[in-house]
Amino acid sequence: MEPLVTLKGNTGVLPRVNIDTDQIIPKQFLKRVERTGFGQFLFFDWRFNADGSDNENFELNQPHAKDASILIADHNFGCGSSREHAPWALNDYGFRVVIAPSFADIFYNNCFKNGILPIRLPEDEVYALMEKGRDAIYELTVDLENQKITDDGGFETSFEIDPYLKGMLLNGWDEISLTLQYENEIESYEKEVQA
Amino acid sequence: MKPKTIIEKIWDHHTVKSEADRPDLMYIDLHMVHEVTSPQAFEGLRLAGRKVRRPDLTFATMDHNVPTKNRESITDLVAKKQMETLSTNCEEFGVEIADINSPNNGIVHVIGPELGLTQPGKTIVCGDSHTSTHGAFGALAFGIGTSEVEHVLATQSLWQSRPKTMEVRVNGRLAEGITAKDIILAIISKFGVDFGTGHVMEYTGEAIKGLTMEERMTICNMSIEAGARAGLISPDQVTVDYLKGRRNVPEGEAFEEKVSEWMSFATDKDATYDSVVEIDAAEIEPMVTWGTNPAQGVSVHGQVPSPEDAMSGPERKAIEQSLEYMGLEPGTKITDIEVEHVFIGSCTNSRISDLREAAAVAKGQKVADGVRAMVVPGSMSVKKMAEQEGLDDIFRAAGFDWREAGCSMCLSMNPDFVPEGERCASTSNRNFEGRQGKGARTHLVSPAMAAAAAVNGKFADVRDLERSPVS
Ligand code: SF4
Fold first, then answer.
1. A1 in a structural domain
2. How many domains does chain A have?
């Protein structure tokens, strides 16, 4: 997995609550047997008109948000289905950071396995960032090492993150290799408990 | 010793490694696999030259993609490939599979309990958020992503941070004719779609203890719709009676031993939780959702709310979005909403008791003009049982379509879907935008209420209709 240390990038704003994984990637696109190529289907039902053209009204289709790599959304982002296709699609589209006041648990976990940093910020801070990014290009710098977010206009805030999950992203660890270092423990657990 | 909840007991029993500043390494007792969230995981194993550590603790089925009629000739080639990929993967890695031709085939959360794989005190995972269903047996069961599927295949373990515990207590007794689906929809409507975030919930109280296993599964199934990591119910005699004699459950003396092991996981008297919510069973009425998340539900005697009723800005916005998508006006009486489709099925409500309840309403009646209604059993064995009881004849005579087992119209990854702008009374668990098809409008209800909507053409309180018990 690609490590994520700092990222400076444009923001895309989706001021909606309860954005579920069915919206992030609708089920008709879950039939692929690869991990890649899902970005083209991200937010499909919102992003495209019935005839396949871009829906101009959709926030991420607006010119100022075109190359966004930081997504800002409202409460309970990523709720619903556990499909990891959701972070795959976000990543493949170009998002590496998602900022929201709250996330659904499974989605939050899935992000870390796929090089995406989900950041919880207080609601008023999220809404203030949304204001700035809603109609104009608005860049943020996310510094994972120091757990800080800044912009060029002097804004600065910090965020909380579990140290283990932070380490995973910073180092781009493959979790399975990490776990296999504990193979002896797993084996003795099996012997003791399942005997 | 400090009294413990079932959640803490299962957790402590399964911790392989616990260190400061990182999640615990948890052992997984049962891993259920299906076709949609597993291909990339098996591919990962192959690329890294790894094996499945415990094929004997792994079980696969195909359910999401499978057509519910004409199964011999699958026309969706991408779906077909995904199913074939699962079969090949299972063969290569030595995992047992209930494929489309197996008499055990069915929705993963329906067959686990049927086969006795689901047992109290186990840790159970599956690449599917409704894995919480298995919690009905007093197992700690939760959905995982595909990377975690790969992780469990390779190591039979998972890194998990310790959850907070929550008691969801349903006090008192249910009124006549109220079902498990109404209970869980009422709970989520009352407390919201994310009140369970970060928590594992235990459902307790007199009303819960009085439920059958199948009803308990309906409740636990929808824990995820409250944002919870998992939901469970402490095992009791009802649990033991259900499991006795099932495949994968030991017999004779070994069974007695198992039972005492299972019971030891039940929550201790006086154990405390990080938080508690309560609801009075007597206040629960037949529920119907009107919006695009499962918390947007009211009693069948209620009406569609107005954005003006919202308590907060985000809630107001959510109501507006939902009304627009659903094509509903504030103040519309629920009983005035007409439906074009009725779907009885899904891992929430496709077990034999669900079908019996729906059949009791359908018996001797006719599906209303302009309504397309279908019944999709949760597994091939549910289907067989229903046919032995003659339920299929009751449904067909009433004008319902009777199908093969599968997820079907719950998520419409298969040929079954609701056309754009049309309305469906559905016994499934999600009324999200587009869930049953692009632009489809879903109203979540119990099986009896779905059957009532089918014969009435509009939502109706099933308690006001004639019912003919079928068994
Ligand atoms: S029936 Fe629906 S919710 Fe259940 S496993 Fe299938 S798709 Fe998921």
1. no
2. 1
